[in-house]
């Protein structure tokens, strides 16, 4: 009972054995990320089974565009999480309160901006990407509904970042599990029961995320022993917002680069036809496989931030080594599962045997790349937590823009034949694997180079 309580308690990472603190913080996040992936996975299963492969293709084609539109909030969330963890580590109540209040106001303003901008841009983007006529209306409906419900999605992600910065990864888990259950029920009701199709999936997700956001806010209101959530702190403080933006923008740009590359590659994917587009199955299984890596990356950001705030740089280095080794070991186990049971995993999503075979073959291409991403995410997390958000941004820029996109189009061009006029569709995933491996090597070099240590000392 005590060990269970310990697992679900708020974690102060400035004391105790580093690896133990990292694991205790990461486990609820991994469980939470499983629930997060269930959002997308259930959407795909319900749409694939009850509507058809074209609807599955529509959800898959819309996902990179949605991720691109959400990068603003990803940046705010990362900047807030870094600042909150550092102020928590240094026990600076005043700046902690100002930061959280400013972030709440900044999120509201950003949500309004994105609703306006997204509503205007969605259809032109889909047309620019040559989205097939058979799925473009569904893609558009899905994205419009997600845009109008963006405040719930934004506040959930940002408030979760604040909670994690405070060492509380369990509350975010609880609220996400509640929302996931609601999402599954609404998915089945809207799509299977009311025949709403793809729009029903989007509506279910928006409602569930709004509930999560409200629960996160109510939790923060109860944490008065750590900070003050009063009206005076909701007034934007220029210095705090400037720091959130300075730390968060590189992370937002990093995600924007990744999402933009996904959108560009989606254009290439669209040229291979509905069967390859419908291969959203790979994205869903990939989401589960990548989940521990992102969890460890977030944990290392909080760990690094709290210890930098407490001025314990040696402890940061020890935790970085231990956390990375644990992340690589976890990814190795997941890779083994994909290689051994991949075909059975793909068959959950569709009964189309051609699609199952295609998905399984491509996941085998990606499998070993998850080990590389474990290194990248963990060490990037350490650098971000220390305040060096620029280095991971540049690494992402190099691996995605200079390596992945040109390589995907280059392989496609070189493998063109009369039977495959667009080239070999595997170019999409081969280019991704190469960029992951090179990204891990570059990240390890820059971590050892140590510019992040200078940021930590500042």
Describe the structure.
It is a single chain. The chain is mainly alpha-helical and 458 residues long. Helices cover 83% and strands 0% of the residues. The longest helix has 36 residues, at 93-128. The model has no long low-confidence stretch (mean pLDDT 81).
Main sheet characteristics = none
Query: How many H/I helical runs?
Result: 19
Report the average pLDDT across residues. 81
Topology, number of strands? 0
Note the overall shape. globular
Rg on CA atoms, Å: 21 Å
Give the low-confidence spans.
Answer: none
**What is the element string, with H for helices and E for strands?**
HHHHHHHHHHHHHHHHHHH
Distance between the termini: 42 Å
User: Helix/strand/pairing class, anyone?
Assistant: mainly alpha
Roughly how much helix do the residues carry, as a percent range?
over 70%
Share of β-strand residues = under 5%
